[in-house]
Amino acid sequence: MSFNLNKDGSRVLYLNFRSIGDGKKETEAEQIFSFSHLIEDSSNYLCAIERFRLPIQSLPMQDAINNAFILRNKTGGDDIFISTITTFGLYDWLLQINRASVSLDVILTADGRAQILDFDFDAFSIELDPKVANILDMPVLIDGAGVQSIIGGIPIFDLFDQLFKIQIEALNGLGNLQQEIIDTNIFTTLLTDFIAPSNFSMSVTNQINTALTNEISFSLPIRQDLDFSLQGPRRFINFRGSAPIQNVKVRVTGIYRDGSRHAIIIPKNGVFELKLALFRR
């Protein structure tokens, strides 16, 4: 879609939103205008995002999991219960698990799969919380007498992060934008949504006659600011009806893999910025 901005009456309005975090404030911002209406007839306009900067460091990669691992003792001794606390990184999560018991060692293979290494399955079986089983891509109950190691089927980097996608929603004055159906009974006015970025990498260095696992380096995903600047086609959104536009508010929400919605808190001194364009046809 293209616009002839030289045509009589054509114009572009840019709205700049900015909010600085204090460690408690949610990721949202509002523009309040003192004059009557920013736009009298919204049916003449289309809306699109030009750029944004979004701090998502407050969203943990995994919430606390009670009894993430239960090591069932087959010899009549005590079972071992391992829980994990809220964590913002895969390395810290694995460290929690491995430090909780000398009996359990969970590592990453050269291709990023989870491996339970050198475990005494003759003495113990393992029960996994369903969420942990999904992350490791392993069965909930692992009982492999005579076996020492179990390897998951696929790399766990993306499965570990409970954040699935980000939604930027329009509120108040932009509430008459075209809506999207999220679920059977849920409608929302989305400016845009996008899958949470995956930024892990892996490198392997080996020499002739050396084991491949000797020189493996992982760069694991971390939480950081998300920056977007328009470089391709815009995602234009129509307005429903012709209601005027006065105050304008936007809000950012994190959607987890289980479908739950979570507010994103702006970290102290973090900055949320968004530039919105309104194009008159």
Mean pLDDT: 82
The 3D shape can be described as: elongated
Main sheet properties: 5 strands, antiparallel
CATH architectural label of the largest domain: Sandwich
Q: Quickly name the level 1 CATH class of the largest domain.
A: Mainly Beta
The ordered string of helix (H) and strand (E) elements is: EEEEEHEEEHEEHEEEEEEEEEEE
Strand content: 35-45%
Helix share bin: under 10%
Q: Which structural class do you get from the secondary structure elements? A: mainly beta
CATH topology of the largest domain: Jelly Rolls
Low-confidence residue ranges: none
Given the structure, what is the number of helices? 3
Task: Provide structural commentary.
With 281 residues, the chain is mostly beta strands. The chain has two domains: 12-60 and 162-280, Jelly Rolls, CATH 2.60.120; 65-160, no CATH class. It is built from three helices and 21 strands. The strands form six sheets. Strands 1, 3, 17, 18 and 21 form a five-stranded antiparallel β-sheet that branches. Strand 6 and strand 7 (114-116) form a beta hairpin. The longest helix is centred in the middle third of the chain and has 11 residues, at 90-100. It starts with 11 loop residues before the first strand and ends with a strand.
